[in-house]
Amino acid sequence: MSSSTGRTGTTTAITDIATLVTNDPSLGRGSPRSSELESGSPLGLIRDAAVVIDGDRVVWTGESSKAPATDNRVRADGRAVLPGFVDSHSHLVFAGDRTEEFNARMSGRAYSAGGIRTTVAATRAATDAELEANLTRFLTEALRQGTTTFETKSGYGLTVADEARALRLAAAHTDEVTYLGAHIVSPDYADDPAAYVALVTGEMLDACAPHARWIDAFCEKGAFDGDQARAILTAGRAKGLHPRIHANQLSHGPGVQLAVELDAASADHCTHLTDADVDALANGDTVATLLPGAEFSTRAEWPDARRLLDAGVTVALSTDCNPGSSFTSSMPFCVALAVRDMGMTPDEAVWSATAGGAAALRRTDVGRITPGAYADLILLDAPSHIHLAYRPGVPLVSGVWRRGVRVV
User: Fold this and answer.
1) DSSP SS3 for 13
2) Tens digits of per-residue pLDDT, 188-245?
3) The pairing of beta strand 57-63 with beta strand 46-54
């Protein structure tokens, strides 16, 4: 049982929780109500639990019967409470959609990175108001499904002005903003990729760095090779942006090794890996972020999460919400896919969608329900987190608290 951190805002207790996911394994092992199976869980499960919120933070967790007095009390009535989902990879600043491309792909055409150009054209033509309205619509959609922390990227402008405005709009809604001028080579530079890399690492970077925390590159055939990606990420790091990278999505390549070399926070996709790639991730601090929505929407090979987890790699799950290859904002859907098709247990998938996403953003104040963390909580209309995979497609999220305020 944890104690108060001494905050002095309005206090609220959520009591009568059937299963509380804390993501502190010591709580699960130490709970007299935990089963032998739960004792090895990364989720730190507490049965018959309560949480106390003071202002925007969690200040106490423990058994419901021992909850301290608070200003307000909410009964969970035997339902589960989890940390808010942390979606550490999305592309939400765009216009238009790619319905026709999806329909054609589902009729047998293979996915390639080239479809991004369609969204680039629509995004350039959109007004700021149109782009922001689209962004907030998807954020509201994600929040209703339990996402309380999200990262999002530029990458659909590919000019200095359009990339900077995408980041400016995103920064009004989240601190986790990523500069992705290196999504593909801009159509304007199709005959001179080197000149585009110079733009991305020069004038465009100067305009974008003030609005971003991260820098990303799509290291893949048809986008940027290893040397180009290294130059882009290194230039960003010199401007104070920390690297993350689209790596090994469509084929084997240098992306994962480059991510570890540059201490990237995350290597995202990780679908096609060699043993050396897995070893590098296991021996480094880079999180492997898996994006099952992309494989679902492109009928591609599933990432082997089991292989990564058994090697000791830290794994995150995210939506990759974008109009081309993964047009979903649902973290519960991605949890279900990871359990069904990627070899993860329900506990591992929930951890990866919460604490794993936080690790991919190098955050310790989200993705867990422990004293000092932000009070970002999900109430499920189910007694256990396992129902997220057990009942796929069912809207189980019945309550969401973000920064201590109930928003759903």
Assistant:
1) strand
2) 999 999 999 999 999 999 999 999 999 999 999 999 999 999 999 999 999 999 999 9
3) antiparallel
